[in-house]
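Researcher: Here's my situation. A collaborator sent me these components and asked whether they could plausibly form a single complex. I don't have experimental data yet, so a predicted model of the whole assembly would be a useful starting point for our discussion.
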Amino acid sequence: MISLRSSFPWLRMPLFALAVFAILQIPADAARDNALVVDLSDDLIGISTGFTGANVLLFGATDGEGDVIVLVRSPDSRVVVRRKSRVAGIWINTDELTFDDAPGFYQVAASGPVADILPARLLEANQIGVDNIVFKPHEFLSPSEEQVFREALVRNKQRSGLYGESVGDVSIQGGRLFRTRLELPANVPTGEYTVTVLLVDNREVVSRSTRQLSVRKVGIEAKVTEFAFEQSLWYGILAVLIALIAGWFAGFVFRKV
Amino acid sequence: MSIYLPIAEMSVDVFLILLMGGGVGFLSGLFGVGGGFLMTPLLIFIGISPAVAVATEANQIVAASVSGVLAHTRRRNVDFKMGIVLTIGGFAGSSVGVVLFTFLREIGQVDLLVRLCYVVFLGIVGSLMLFESGRAILRRQSGTASRGKLHQHTWFHGLPFKMRFRRSRLYISALLPIGIGFFVGILAAIMGVGGGFLMVPAMIYLLGMPTSVVVGTSLFQIIFVTANVTFLQAVNNQTVDIVLALLLLTGAVIGAQLGTKASGKLRGEELRGLLALMVLGVCAKIGIELVAKPDDVYSINEIDGFGL
């Protein structure tokens, strides 16, 4: 298809001029809006049969000195945190608190200790660090109880490698180029991830850029899951049939033994 | 070599799973039991969620029981009429079991229930078997063989709906096998087992069936009960992992053949004694886990989306 511009080359000039004009119009305090260019080596992580985790290279350039903070966050889900206590000698789940919006996966990488890069107020506002993730509790508990459950949620997630703060992982070359490796373990939840990159200068966020990273099952893994969840009746019948045939086949093969 | 299990949503070593299948299969061939009571705890131990472990193991037991029944049918060791009556109770019981399982999973008590069932029933059955085989070994050594009655007559021989089971040489109320099938069915669904370790003693001591037809008939009804559990778990909870089930049964089939060969080298009461020790071992391990303080008294569970 022939575009308007290529059939009328003279149209390009005014558009270019307009673009330059638009850039010049940016107010001074946001002058570094395009100070950050970011990209990912992959924007799709496919979970296939051999999946044992993945590794995505995030790289980019800044227009000058500054620190870089990278936040990787999967979609939120409802998580119930349960507490066991001893009842008649055995450990039983007795208390619970549900959080409506806990990210399934959360990682921070930065070019230095985040507490030195940004003041606490801004770390909190940007949900940087596992202690600053906002969880909305579903039920009301006393603030101290809520805090205990919150910490338990983070601790459990950290134990399974899903929450973390790999401080000092972003390397900056020549003050302009930066890169980091985002490690996704084998148990990553699926979904559309958001990768947010913040450029910090003088304890202020001067620029921010986000990229989408899609984590999903592909190939046979995707087919089996889709089948199991969307056609669960037929999946159940098929599972039984496969087992019946496999059992019959085994009995047939080994009947002489 | 690792493989990503689509429903369990984790990566496992193929050889580890094959080895587990083979090892449990060997023991099940050796002792003539299904092996679910060993496999389900093992699956949970390697990190598979109890819900997926229970449902997937039911699927694997379907296959194991089919090949077992084929062997027993050739030796005419299956009382099909009794098997069908037990299955009627088993179908109802396992359906109730799956509903109960789903409910307890929602309120976060499924782990507790599964563990308690294991401790209680493995404890009872293991102790009885150990006692019985010990007595048999002692009796053999002292050289006196005692003969008792075929079975004791008790109140349940007076129940209505009497049926004749020719191969088992019994004339009893159908309510009795239906009731036993129902009860074992509930436990099979909750524990992720076939229930043979409960069904076999119940058939011998409660129904008074001859031992020759007990294992074949038990396996016959286990096919239907575990098929029902597999189907209902797949429909209600989407927790049946076909890939895992296939890996397990591949190992189990080979292991079971080797186990059957090895079983010829041991005496019946010695086999039962060993099996009893193993059953009690699993019971003790799970019992300790219930009583010991967990590393972290807090645990988490995702509610939305895939997985648990």
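Model: Some features of this prediction you could bring to your collaborator: Chain B touches chain A through 61 residues (CB under 8 Å). The radius of gyration of chain B is 19 Å.
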